[in-house]
Automatic annotation (TrEMBL):
Name the record gives this protein: DUF6708 domain-containing protein
Membrane keyword on record: yes
Species in which this protein is naturally found: Herbaspirillum rubrisubalbicans Os34
Region: Disordered, residue numbers: 1-29
Keywords: Membrane, Transmembrane, Transmembrane helix
Length: 393
């Protein structure tokens, strides 16, 4: 048995023993670890051995999640990490809410730029074909038909790539509402294969779930690039019918995926969510904050994308930065249009919309600047704690 297998076996054995004794999983005897910490906090789940050990827990009933290679995390009362961190997955922060974004937020414009970039070799091919027709008129009909079909196929592909980046919403957030004990999930239902809308957002749906009916889980998946398989891990929530009914009725991801060797990052993310919703932690810990997509900055900032010493957010000059700037300056022909297309697509898409009652519950509009700093470390008491304090007074 490998070291990783022994690690998983020890955690599974501990869970089974405590379950047989009628104790919640992860509880500890007085004088040991904190009573609200699970066994997950005892290890650094980073690296191949740790990853294999973690996902081996899926084979144990105490950890079996919903889906293949899915590991169910402990209940909300138990901690899974001692270093909570959003990992840059929060797109907006409210006085009583955190909105986690998917990976689309940082990818807007890539498909449209790819569609436009495809035209360069196409024009070269057309020039070659027309030159061939000019030299040999007998080839004219066949090549003309070939070019016509090629233009139709290319135009169709480019149309849908550009449409992907200018219709719908910039991202599909998951809003954790601490004040109401709810989780609101935004679903973009804009149809790609329809004529309308020509740009901007279309249909959307918001599903709301009780925090008490959610369980976190980490899932491993495999993505194939040619003959190479890459293992990814993602954090998701499974929604059960009720606190006492384990029937799964829905599932959604929280933030983007990461390499399967970095499970610890996902546990840190879930711990941040758990502490926030359980009124145990603030909006952000030190050196953490909301993710700012590059396309949200000014047009000048977008045009300076990829240039470390030019534009807003530039780095302090150093030998390394100067060398990096000299290198990236050779690719201005690429970075300028890439930043411009991303900026245009991001602003053409619509921003996700929350109903007025949800915004009122989380405390109003998203926090920025001094307001964000003022709320950063605040941990409001729960309704239950507030009631107890009033009763004592």
């Amino acid at each position: 048995m490998s070291k990783g297998d022994r690690k998983a076996a020890r955690i599974a054995q501990r869970a089974q023993q405590e379950g047989a004794q009628g104790k919640p999983y992860g509880s500890f005897e007085p004088g040991g670890q904190a009573a609200n910490e699970s066994d997950f906090v005892l290890y650094d789940w980073t690296g191949q051995t740790a990853s294999d050990a973690f996902f081996a827990l899926h084979n144990d009933p105490a950890f079996k999640g919903f889906g293949t290679d899915a590991v169910l995390l402990p209940p909300h009362s138990l901690s899974v990490s001692r270093a909570p961190h959003t990992g840059g997955s929060v797109i907006e922060a409210y006085p009583h809410g955190l909105a986690y974004a998917d990976q689309i937020a940082g990818m807007v414009g890539m498909a449209a730029f790819g569609a436009l970039f495809m035209q360069l070799p196409l024009f070269g091919l057309l020039f070659y074909l027309f030159a061939s027709v000019y030299q040999d008129a007998r080839m004219g009909i066949g090549i003309t038909l070939f070019v016509f079909l090629g233009l139709i196929v290319n135009g169709t592909i480019c149309y849908f790539l550009i449409r992907w980046d200018i219709t719908g919403y910039r991202y599909a957030p998951v809003l954790f509402d601490r004040a109401a004990g709810k989780v609101h999930v935004f679903f973009d239902q804009t149809m790609l294969f329809r004529w309308l809308p020509l740009w901007g957002g279309g249909k959307y749906e918001i599903q709301t779930y009780d925090w008490s009916c959610l369980r976190g889980q980490v899932t491993r998946s495999r993505v194939f690039t040619g003959n190479t398989a890459q293992e990814l891990a993602s954090l998701s929530c499974v929604v059960v019918r009720g606190p006492q009914d384990p029937t799964v009725v829905a599932q959604f991801e929280v933030g983007g995926s990461t390499n399967a060797l970095a499970v610890q990052l996902l546990l840190d993310r879930w711990e941040h969510v758990r502490r926030f919703m359980e009124h145990e932690g603030p909006l952000f810990v030190q050196d953490d904050g909301p993710y700012v997509p590059p396309a949200t900055q000014s047009l000048w900032g977008a045009l300076c994308w990829g240039q470390p010493l030019i534009g807003p957010g530039r780095h302090a000059p150093s030998v390394g930065m100067v060398l990096a700037q000299m290198f990236t300056a050779c690719f201005v022909w690429f970075t300028v249009p890439f930043g411009l297309v991303g900026w245009l697509c991001f602003h053409i898409k619509d921003k996700p919309k929350w109903p007025a009652e949800i915004l009122a519950s989380v405390g109003g509009n998203p926090l920025t600047g001094k307001d964000l700093e003022a709320w950063r470390g605040v941990v409001p008491a729960s309704n239950h704690e507030s009631g107890n304090q009033k009763a004592r007074s």
